[in-house]
Amino acid sequence: MLLALVPIVILALWYAQQTAHQQQKINEIYNKNQLLILSFNALKSDISALEKAHLNNQLLNNAELQKSIESKWQTTKKRIDFLKSSYPIEKLVAKWQQLQLLTPSEQALEVDYGQLQRQLLAIEQPFQNVLEAKLERQAQQLAQLNQYFLFGLFILIPLLVVISLLVIRRVTRQLSALEEVIWQLGEGRFDTPINLHGSEEFVALGKELDWLREELQRSHKQKETFLRHVSHELKTPLASLTEGNSLLQSGSFGAISSPQQRIINIMDGALTRLATLIDDLLNYSAASHPLAQQQHPFAHIKDELLKHFALQIDESNIELKWRDKSEQTCLPYLPVKLILTQLIGNALQYANSTIEVKYCVVHNDVFIDVKDDGPGIELSEQHKLTQPFYRGKHSENHVGSGLGLAIVSECVKQLKGTIRWQHAKQGCHICIQFPSYGAPTNA
């Protein structure tokens, strides 16, 4: 930017200096012309006065008057010499020479003032033209200077624009690279090293971000290890508690009183919630790692989901509609099943009466849409719902761990797909898209 701006600044300073210099010259020429015009007019007045005095002296023949005429004549000759030397231009040389022949140096009596007056009048117009030409030439130089300045701007401003565009393109490219890196970190892709190119500051920022990536990767692995170990460690005592609670409910240890039954029911509900939470933790931990890509027809995955949610659908009186155009298309079994399990499970908690699951393959891309007629998702919450343990404001009265959509997001990453929320007048509409891995295309 400085390389482009410096020539423009230099050009502007040069133009200002030259303009001031030309303006000064114009003022000097104007002042000189005024002085010459005054001298020329004074010369005409002097010759006219000498002519009258000479005529009078021819009648009076006065010696004092003659001396006065001669003194005045010497002054007039100096004025003529001054005018002749001021602009010795070829156009005026001949006329000044003719005028000089009429001005003998010795005796003013021999001067023909009338002819001198006529000759001076003949010089007046060329003399005026010379003065005007001098000003006009200076004005032309000033106009030429303006043209040079505009031509310089015409060359330098496009150059500045081009350099500015190149700088903006470079900055934009660096900002785009930085934005991509931020999205990479935000989506949890910690395996790809960060290497930013550009200015020294930008490269230094890339090193700092790469250090942050390594720290996040280490923290993420520690979190996954912790969740996996804790979940597995909790499975064994949870199974023991569940079995003991079942034995208590069976009455094998004697009759159960009403207070005892209430305590057993509370324990049973707590154990169910704990089991659900542990299953979610295990699913989230599994979804965060490469999943087995066994291929199963969508019809098989659908049948397993119907069996899994059969009791919950019957108890809730919610209608589950399936709109699938190609049930025999094979899909990655485990990630697709986890995605639909979490989405349908969430929809069953929030829907009022209807859940619709749509599946199709278009141009080698798989589309899975899950819609319900529940309270929906606030626009301000959409970008947070895939974060682990985050729960929206409509989930306060519903059971859940806050890991459902985080599991969905991890599975979608495994499939190299995308998850998005579609605008719906009522309820929630979640769209999943991922490559079909060679599945046949359905229009």
TrEMBL record:
Residues 169-221 form the HAMP domain. Residues 229-438 form the Histidine kinase domain. It is a multi-pass membrane protein. One of its GO terms (molecular function) is ATP binding. It catalyses: ATP + protein L-histidine = ADP + protein N-phospho-L-histidine. It is an enzyme of class 2 (transferase). GO terms for cellular component: plasma membrane. Its main location: membrane. The keyword NAD does not apply. It is found in: Cell membrane. Its EC number is 2.7.13.3. CDD domains: HATPase (cd00075), HisKA (cd00082). The chain crosses the membrane at residues 148-168. This is histidine kinase. It comes from Pseudoalteromonas amylolytica.
